[in-house]
Specification:
- The protein is mainly α.
- The protein folds into two domains: 146 residues, no CATH class; 99 residues, no CATH class.
- It contains eleven helices and four strands, in the order αββαααββααααααα.
- It has a two-stranded antiparallel sheet with strand order 1-2.
- The protein is globular.
- The chain starts with 15 loop residues before the first helix and ends with a helix.
């Protein structure tokens, strides 16, 4: 069975790598003394392969140069802020939509997605410390100001009439259930595909199915966690994944032929 690589921050075919790698990633962005990963500083959603630091992350006193290179932390405040009407999932979706439109998500080989890093991050420890302080407090730092100006220019080019906050909030809210269901279906297919490639694949499939049950408790509902039952479930719900691709294609956020690819894959 073929496996579909992740090529978007808006849908996910396997939440396990991010789930398993979150602690290492957390300490890549925040020093070892920063404690454990939590949802307040880093948002993680099963339908997206991309974690996203929240505005509260800037208050961490142990940020690394890798963190300071992330694009979203330098976006205008109205863009990166989370508003009281936004759920965690809707805010995460709005950030993924925004960063995708701004071309700040890269797709590497075999479905590895990464953020574009700012190209003006200094190596001097004092300048890095000044940037971190500026990120947290807004105090002056030429390097931080340069990053803010760069990010503001992206937004101005993408939306000359201003960042469409209300429209993107509404769109994100509507897309969350679409991408959640579609990603659950694609992930169920991926788990069954792993189950066909020997003992190691079968063990990984079991791990993956248990993870899907945990992260999609209201969506992933096969009769049993067996290849036969899960195959029946994803085939019964395949249209959800096809519809997801069509919705994203209508928004120019996905290639139109991905819907056909997904339909053929899940047949």
């Amino acid at each position: 069975m073929d496996v579909l690589d992740n090529t978007s921050a808006l849908w996910c075919t396997n939440p396990v790598p991010l789930h398993d790698g979150m602690e290492d990633l957390y300490h890549t962005w925040f020093a070892e003394s920063a404690g454990q990963a939590d949802g307040q500083t880093v948002s993680v959603q099963p339908w997206s392969p991309m974690p996203c630091p929240t505005p509260w992350a800037n208050t961490m006193d142990t940020v690394t140069n890798m963190y300071l290179g992330l694009p979203m932390i330098w976006l205008p405040q109205e863009v990166w802020a989370r508003y009281g009407t936004e759920t965690n999932a809707a805010w995460h979706m709005r950030m993924m939509l925004t960063l995708t439109i701004l071309n700040q998500v890269d797709v590497a080989d075999h479905g590895q997605l990464t953020y574009q890093l700012m190209d003006t991050i200094p190596t001097n420890p004092d300048r890095l410390a000044a940037m971190a302080l500026s990120a947290a407090t807004g105090e002056g730092s030429e390097d931080a100001d340069q990053c803010r100006q760069t990010a503001a220019a992206w937004v101005d080019v993408a939306w000359p009439d201003g960042y469409p906050l209300a429209m993107l909030c509404a769109l994100a809210r509507d897309l969350v259930p679409v991408c959640e269901y579609g990603s659950a279906v694609l992930s169920a297919y991926t788990a069954v595909a792993y189950a066909t490639v020997g003992a190691d694949g079968q063990r990984y499939a079991v791990r993956m199915l248990r993870t899907l049950r945990d992260v999609y408790p209201q969506v992933f509902t096969p009769d049993a966690l067996t290849p036969q039952a899960v195959t029946g479930w994803y085939r019964a719900h395949r249209q959800q994944a096809v519809d997801m691709m069509n919705v994203l294609a209508d928004l120019n956020l996905e290639h139109r032929d991905m819907a056909t690819t997904v339909a053929n894959l899940l047949a």
